[in-house]
Amino acid sequence: MPVSASRPLCAALAGLAVLPVLAGCGITASSGDEGPAIQVYSARTYGAEKAYERFTQETGVRVEFLNGSDAELRERLEAEGADSPADVYLTVDAANLSLAAEQDLLQPVRSTELEQAVPASLRDPQDRWYGLAERARVIIYDEDQVTPDQLSTYAALSDPAWKGGLCMRTSTSPYTQSLVASLVAHGGEAGAREVIDGWMANDPQILANDTEIIRTVDAGGCTVGITNHYYVAREEAKDPDLGVGVFFPDQAGNGTHVNISGAGVTRSADDVPRATQFLEWLATTGQSQFVDGNFEYPVNRSVEPVEALVEMGEFRRDELNVGELRRHNATAVQILTDAGYR
């Protein structure tokens, strides 16, 4: 269907009784009020608007977007069905993208540009979604108490030497669940249970978010923790004297666990060509605009990361397809529950 026939986003949402409509419709648009537009359901809030604005400037295509959590927006897509005004579903985690694909909410998009820009491990084998930004789940440490040669793997944090000094994120965090799902994928359920039980035997502090973990380690309240790399870069940008080091685990084994922020074209999309153009731009010309402000790694290996990430050093990534994390997520949640990891 041509873009001129695209359903107005507010009007479509206003007619939906299944899910609550945000006050004032909740829709924001990139600059300008004329010309073609695509509608994006986006769980990504940090700096995304600047990328949307640049895309509009370079292509003349406006981006109208509705923000919410991955799960909320996926559920909205499901409830709206064929009447959804969304052209693109953009998430901050691979699991919800994979689930949306399983629910037939996304359609295959075959693009040479996307295939060349996005590594196979960071995109759907059936072309229904593509990673656009990469996050590494790293071990952080108190530089006053720990040296890198004391660290090796995620599993090694179950060593009694770390008892009372371990900081972890809550079990409800998709980052925690995805890391444990990767342990299941590589070591089986029994192996993952052994690791998590070992962590719990070390009486970890379970904290609400990665920033709190970093600040606790910096203050000496924990000696080690697990966070996404970019939270450390953010804190260092605010405080150059931050006493927290970054270690990339499992370099002699499976490689450091990574996750993505990514997107797919919805099954209901009115303008598939322009929605595809948007994904292609984000993965190529717009990569730096999309990832740099949040200190994420470009998925496009031809794009240089920001200097703060270069200074963290190179590392070997886990090559497990991130879509596999969804397949093992329920097992991961059960393991965490059984271990008393809250």
TrEMBL record:
This is Ferric iron ABC transporter, iron-binding protein. Keywords: Ion transport, Iron, Iron transport, Metal-binding, Signal, Transport. GO terms for biological process: iron ion transport. Fe cation binds at residues 230-231. The lineage of its organism: Bacteria, Bacillati, Actinomycetota, Actinomycetes, Frankiales. It comes from uncultured Frankineae bacterium. Transmembrane segments: none annotated. InterPro entries: Ferric-bd, SBP. Belongs to the bacterial solute-binding protein 1 family. One of its GO terms (cellular component) is outer membrane-bounded periplasmic space. Residues 1-23 form the signal peptide. One of its GO terms (molecular function) is metal ion binding. PROSITE patterns: PROKAR_LIPOPROTEIN (PS51257). Gene3D superfamilies: Periplasmic binding protein-like II.
